[in-house]
Amino acid sequence: MARPETTGKKISTAGGKKKAGPARKSDADDDADDDDGSYTVDEFCRRNKISLQAFYKHRADMPRGYLVGSKRLISREEDREWRTARTEAAKSQPLVTDIFHRNQKQRRAREQAAQ
Predict the structure, then answer these.
(1) pLDDT tens across 3-36, in order?
(2) Distance from C-alpha of 2 to C-alpha of 14, rounded to nearest angstrom
(3) SS3 for 61?
(4) What kind and span of H or E run contains 16?
(5) Which of 20, 62, 78, 102 is the most exposed place for a label (fewest CB within 10 A)?
(6) What is the CA radius of gyration of the chain?
(7) Which domains are assigned to the chain?
């Protein structure tokens, strides 16, 4: 039998129905479940759209949080402060495109001076 990608035919699933995956909670649901105003590390990463690997790789730059037993929680205030600090740090750094265009201008100026 020929492969479906060669013949152009659709691949059918058994029974013709797709399997439904587990329901995923939204960020709003996460906020609604928090009574104490804190996030776990996983919730913090999901909320700020960073991976757990990035969180632990840049641990010194992340909010410190506090321990409840062996579970690390990050308060909403720390989350807000971290976001504000990251935003301010990003504003103080020039964009990559700005650096590129500045270097292009400097290169053109050197070339014209050399002629």
Answers:
(1) 766 777 777 666 555 555 565 555 545 444 545 7
(2) 19
(3) helix
(4) none
(5) 20
(6) 25
(7) 30-107 (1.10.1660)
